Amino acid sequence: MNQQPPSEPLGQTAASVMAAKLQSDLSGLVNALAKGMDDRLAPFSIDPISYIILVHCSTAGPTEISALRRAIPTDPGRMSRLISALAFRNLVRKVRLQSDQRVVRVELTGEGETMVPELMRRVEAFYGDILAGVSEEDFSACMATVDRLVQGINQAQARFREES
């Protein structure tokens, strides 16, 4: 008897194989982006979230901690520790509003203002290197696919919640 092997591994559909590949490739991309950011910021002992805080304060000016928490996806405790660490290094200062002592704004110090342009230059060069071989059309098509995948995830999650 001559049996042919199954076209897909047992228990796996084409969708599950594609999803596993997608998850693996996206994880690799996210890890590579994080490693690239870490490498470029390491000489300054700055992590990517601290970088975002510094750039936000540079571009938006003095910013309330509550606004930073809304703009940067991290938990309040971590945000507080990061801002305190940046203040300890004299890159930012925390200023309480005279009108409401509960409100604290974060602003760059002179040292922070001096450091941010070099940090931004390094990160922008990294981003430029990453996207050098990608056309705007390719990037738009990729982002449209990512949007469709996110919609599919949201729909699957909604169905799961309804069935649970």
Task: Please characterize this protein's 3D structure.
The protein has a 3-stranded antiparallel sheet with strand order 1-3-2. The chain has 6 helices and 3 strands. The N and C termini lie far apart (45 Å). The protein has helices spanning 14-41, 48-60, 65-71, 76-88, 110-131, 136-163; strands at residues 63-64, 92-96, 104-108.
Features of the shown structure:
single chain; 164 residues; mainly alpha; three-stranded antiparallel sheet
State which percent range the strand residues make up.
5-15%
Low-confidence stretches: none
What characterizes the major β-sheet? 3 strands, antiparallel
Order of SSEs: HHEHHEEHH
Distance, first to last CA: 45 Å
Shape type:
globular
Annotation, overall tally of beta strands: 3
Mean pLDDT: 91
Assembly type of the chains comes to single chain
- Spatially, the strands of the biggest sheet line up as 1-3-2
Number of helices: 6
Give the secondary structure arrangement, pairings included:
Blueprint: H1 14-41, H2 48-60, E1 63-64, H3 65-71, H4 76-88, E2 92-96, E3 104-108, H5 110-131, H6 136-163
Antiparallel strand pairs: 1-3, 2-3
Helix pairs in contact: 1-5, 2-5
